[in-house]
Structure to design on (270 residues):
């Protein structure tokens, strides 16, 4: 479950 | 764990990867792994004695003070240099890449994946949270049937080896299939709680360490003082503990 949580983490929107 | 234990944990975990994890792990694995995470889960053990990797040796354990049957991060993981600190560290390294691809620091994510997978294995082996004074059972000389060994090796290897010989036709893959079947049927109600982490944490190794020192005191050290010959009684009563730890381990790693 740890690797699934890590790799499903959505990329943060690049700060404007 | 020994090689077979780490192989089993990572093989079980592979069966629970979500699609994004399958893609990410395949990208990160070294060529020689042939697409199999299980092929590289012992790599941290293979390198820990090399001069340039000697610093990683302490990351396989947490140092519980003698006869304390509980776990405290602040007491047992000085300067974050222990198995729980390592799990947090390599989780954050992998997260830093997947959450923000413009991350300034470029970690070696292949190493981070192999270290995280290995340490998630070790933290579930009760004697990897064993007492500092006897080096997690390494200094407790015992006989495993007629073989001279030490208590740490009994839990890393001997119980798994004896199970494989006795019940699984000497085949590790048959043993793994049996654990996978138990996860589907016997432990299916436990799997959701094993998977979850409180407070939306990505990784939560501290409770795993608490479970391990509890099991070390209740099962590993009990009736296993220096010079004891461990046989059927110890093997048959401890095998269920080892099998459940390996299965739980695979779920939590995935």
């Amino acid at each position: 479950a740890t690797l699934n949580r890590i790799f499903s983490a959505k990329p943060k929107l690049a700060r404007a | 764990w020994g090689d077979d234990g780490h192989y089993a944990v990572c093989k079980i975990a592979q069966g629970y990867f979500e699609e994004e994890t399958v893609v990410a792990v395949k990208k990160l694995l070294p060529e020689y792994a042939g697409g199999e995470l299980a092929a590289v889960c012992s790599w941290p053990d293979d390198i820990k004695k090399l001069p340039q990797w000697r610093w990683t040796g302490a990351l396989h354990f947490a140092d519980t003070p003698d006869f304390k049957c509980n776990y405290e991060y602040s007491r047992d993981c000085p300067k974050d240099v222990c198995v729980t600190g390592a799990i947090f560290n390599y989780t954050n390294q992998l997260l830093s890449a997947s959450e923000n691809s413009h991350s300034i620091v470029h970690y070696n994510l292949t190493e981070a994946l192999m270290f995280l997978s290995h340490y998630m294995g070790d933290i579930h082996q009760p004697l990897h949270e064993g007492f500092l004074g006897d080096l997690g059972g390494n200094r407790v000389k015992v006989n495993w049937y007629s073989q001279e060994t030490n208590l740490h090796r009994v839990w890393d290897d001997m119980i798994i080896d004896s199970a494989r010989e006795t019940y699984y036709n000497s085949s590790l893959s048959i043993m793994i299939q049996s654990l996978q079947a138990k996860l589907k049927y016997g432990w299916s109600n436990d799997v959701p709680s094993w998977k979850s982490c409180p407070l939306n944490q990505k990784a939560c190794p501290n409770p795993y360490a608490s479970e391990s020192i509890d099991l070390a005191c209740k099962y590993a050290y009990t009736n296993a003082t220096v010079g004891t010959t461990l046989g059927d009684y110890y093997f048959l009563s401890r095998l269920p503990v080892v099998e459940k730890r390996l299965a739980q381990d695979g779920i939590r790693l995935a």
